[in-house]
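To close the section, here is one more complete example, presented without commentary so you can practise reading it yourself. The ligand is zinc ion.
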Amino acid sequence: MRTFEHFPNKQKCPICKTNEDKTCVLVGIEGTQEGFNVQAQPFHLECLDLTWFKDNNIIAMKWLEEKADKKEVKLFCVDCKTELEPFDDDTGKETPRCQECHDKMVEASDIEENVKTNG
Ligand SMILES: [Zn+2]
Ligand SMILES: [Zn+2]
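Output:
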């Protein structure tokens, strides 16, 4: 396999998602063959960790994509179960409530408080 000293700076290594200028190899992209030509993707040599599937004559590697998008945790109001907009600031609320139920709860606890103090 031919190695290249420089990584093409307009492309990104699909594994590390960078174009760090390190030794790379070109890997043909399956399904892009046209005659003797094939599209190729540069990978950093050191990012590759290949496995040989002896029985099938395949050399392959699987890597896990790290989801770049923020964790999409769906929040539901603990009282009425409507889906809530994710909180920007105070994440990790144990008892998320919609505004409506929150107001009700505050009202209720206010009443409780009044009952306690007055009663
Ligand atoms: Zn890489
Ligand atoms: Zn609610």
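Once you have examined the tokens, check your reading against these statements. The two ends are 85 Å apart (CA to CA). The first strand starts at residue 3 and ends at 4.
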